[in-house]
Amino acid sequence: MLTKATSGTLEVTRVLAVQHAAGKQLSQMLTLHTSDGATLSLTPDHALFVDGTLVATADAKVGSTLVRANGAAVKILRIIDAKAAAVINPVTASGTILASDVGAPVLAASHPMWIAPLVLQSPLVRVFVNSAVYTVGDVTDMTNFCMILFAKTAAALAIVIVGAKVLQRGATAK
What we know:
The protein has helices spanning 116-121, 123-136, 142-173, and strands spanning 2-4, 10-12, 15-19, 26-34, 39-42, 46-50, 53-56, 65-67, 73-86, 89-92, 96-99, 106-112. It is α+β, with helices and mostly antiparallel strands. A hairpin with a 5-residue loop joins β1 (2-4) and β2 (10-12). α2 crosses α3. The chain is elongated.
C-alpha cells in the first residue's frame, strides 16, 4: 500500500491486517468534506493529521487543514456525523495510511488515537503493536483481541517448551 511517511516522503508499506472486515458491526463515523470536493469517513477516535498535528478525528474542525499525499494542504469545509456505518481499517507496518472515500487521499494514522502517537514515535512500540495485530488478525473489539493474543502466545510458548523438552531428552538419551 502506498502511504506518506510522517517525514513527508511517499513510501510503500505492508498491510498487516484489515480490521473489522469480517464484522458487521456499525459504528459512529465522521465524514469530512474538503474544499476540493473529496470526502473521508473515519471513526471519531481514529488518528488523523489535522493542521500538522496528530489528533482524534473528533477534534477536527471546519476550517482546519488536512495533508494530501503530494504535501498540499486542503481545508475541511464541513463535517457530517453518520450514526451507523461499517468500519474497515487497514493496519500498516509504517503506522500511516492515505485514506479517502472520494477524491485525493489524506494522511492518517492506521491506529486509533489512544495508541497512534506511540506507534508513530517509537519503532519498538510499532514493532510490538504491529506484531500483536498481525498475530491476532481481524477482531471487532479489544476484549477479543486480548483473549486471542493471550491464547496464541500461550500456545506458541507451550510448543517451544515441549519442543525444548523433547530435544533435551533426545540429547540425554545418547
